[in-house]
Amino acid sequence: MIEINKVSKWYGSFQVLTDCSTQVAKGDVMVVCGPSGSGKSTLIKTVNGLEPFQEGTIMVNGQSVGDPKTNLSKLRAKIGMVFQNFELFPHLTIRQNLTLGQVKVLGRSEEEATEKGLKYLDRVGLLSQKDKFPGQLSGGQQQRVAIARALSMDPIAMLFDEPTSALDPEMINEVLDVMVGLAQEGMTMMVVTHEMGFAKRVANRIVFMDRGQIVEDCSKEEFFGAPRSERARDFLAKII
Ligand code: ADP
Ligand code: MG
């Protein structure tokens, strides 16, 4: 479903991604980990065209992300993205946050969008909060709304960039539980996270990055059991 092939990217003269290749198949749950600054966010953002790249190709569902002929906003509509800082619209209610993209991007009626949005809000356990504003919710609740909003677009895959790292510790699990549920239902997911418990529970692939390179791309058994690279062993020793 997602095919990243020899992707390199530079910010000016600084090479942030070097020859990155990996694939995410339908139903895969890929966890991307690695030290801060290793290029994880940059890599995940290239997948839905939020960051351009200079070399290589990325195919999503048969469409080339780097091809100027590709309609990026249509492509992005198919891939849900959840960020560290929720990025809800602060001046809109939760219900309006859930319906805006569906109406504007997918052309759904207000009624259909509301029905779908509230279904997912209920699923993340927050239906009773529908008329509040984001600022009235906790961080964990806001992130669950962000996930519900992404799901309301009927994505073919979901990208997560450190979805729990801005949260207070007691709120991390409520977000991870929603993500575990999605993984268990077969959602295709690419998740940048330091939550190795999550990786152990639901990942079927682990990508480890260091200095802009994909250093390991393997099963979780292999990664947690016997990582091949020194750099991955060092990383695991520090984090677990
Ligand atoms: P990670 O998500 O693994 O922490 P990032 O992908 O955010 O890493 O960043 C990788 C490297 O690229 C870092 O060294 C960071 O400072 C640099 N970088 C990120 N964004 C920019 C930018 N817009 N301009 C220049 N350098 C950047
Ligand atoms: Mg990052």
Task: Please tell me about this protein's structure.
This protein is α/β, with parallel strands linked by helices. Helix content is about 40%, strand content about 25%. It is built from 9 helices and 10 strands. It has helices spanning about 40-45, 70-80, 95-105, 110-125, 140-150, 170-185, 195-200, 220-225, 230-240; strands spanning about 1-10, 15-25, 30-35, 55-60, 65, 80, 155-160, 190, 205-210, 215-220. The strands form 2 sheets. It has a 6-stranded mixed β-sheet, sandwiched between helices. A 4-stranded antiparallel β-sheet has the order 2-1-4-5, covered by helices on one side. α3 (about 95-105) runs parallel beside α5 (about 140-150). It starts with a strand and ends with a helix. Magnesium ion binds near residues 40, 41 and 162. InterPro entries: AAA+_ATPase, ABC_ATPase_HisP-typ, ABC_transporter-like_ATP-bd, ABC_transporter-like_CS, MetN_ABC_transporter-like, P-loop_NTPase.
First-last Cα distance: 31 Å
SSE pattern: EEEHEEHEHHHEHEHEEHH
Q: From the alpha-carbon coordinates, what is the Rg to the nearest angstrom?
A: 18 Å
Largest sheet: 6 strands, mixed
Q: Low-confidence parts lasting 5 or more residues at pLDDT below 50?
A: none
* Small-molecule binders: adenosine-5'-diphosphate, magnesium ion
The average pLDDT is 95
Total count of helical runs of at least 4 residues? 9
Q: Strands across the major sheet, in which order?
A: 6-7-8-3-9-10
What share of the residues does DSSP label as strand, in percent? 15-25%
Subcellular location: Cell membrane
Protein name: Amino acid ABC transporter ATP-binding protein
Main location: membrane
Pfam family, one: ABC_tran
